[in-house]
Amino acid sequence: MVQSMLDERISTMPSEPFTEELPLPKAWKQSIKSAVICTLSLAFKTITLALGHSSDSDHVPVRMAAQLKRLKMENAQLKEIMEIKDARMIRVDPKRRPYYSPTERMRILELKSITGMFKKQPTSLQVRQFLGRVVQLAGKTPKHLVCDQGPQFTDNDFKQWCKHKFGRRPRYGAVGKHGSIAVIERFIRTLKDDHLRKILIPYRMDSMRSEMAMFINWYNAFRPHETLDGATPIERYENSTPAIEASRYEPRRKWPRKSRCAKPVVPVEGRRGVKLELVISFMDENRKLPVIELRHVA
Question: Is 195 domain-assigned?
């Protein structure tokens, strides 16, 4: 009973920041808003009482489960508070945001050191070993190798290794120039914004590898890329027809069949006026990697 109540409470907490795109209904009166707040307060009090009763139980599994649920609730509440704060700060121009004090900056550095954000960069040897494994698995060598100007890439041993392995020296992005290595920069941004900043980073290496493998699978198979004209990397790699270039459904019954549509221009499949269903599923249990499908409803 307690577990189901707590699961329902946690599952109803918003997972995305509050934004202006989801305003409260304008017709809501102050009394309705107060009623909603009071209802949530009473529900939370009921859950807290049940949780407190279970925490004092003589049955060890019940007591441990209650403590685990309490920690999950606190974590969800802290996450919700941070998302609300972040949503407000995002609307402030970066040049007008307040500066951190020296003490606050020190606390940020301490937090980064604890969470492992200052990991040592890989050496030139480690980079060469990694690239060698990638080439061996792919069975192909890259046409070009574009790097930033980190010391592991500008190392003479790395340059000579590229010349011997690939028959060409690496290329380098311009220092301090945004977009000089745009494709990989965009990938790293997507990795951070769409996944890593929305989950709790695992402590175990095998768990982190599983998270990365799941993201890479989603990125390659289900995420259209503007650089690839709306295709996914898998579609381009396998030289298959991208889903964006397939025949389209036309839900408007009287819409002229030969009328132009948004690019790319593709023909209408079957009869017009079909009913469609938008299906959204997720690859991960955190519901951060969506898989969107448009299905024909019979």
Answer: no
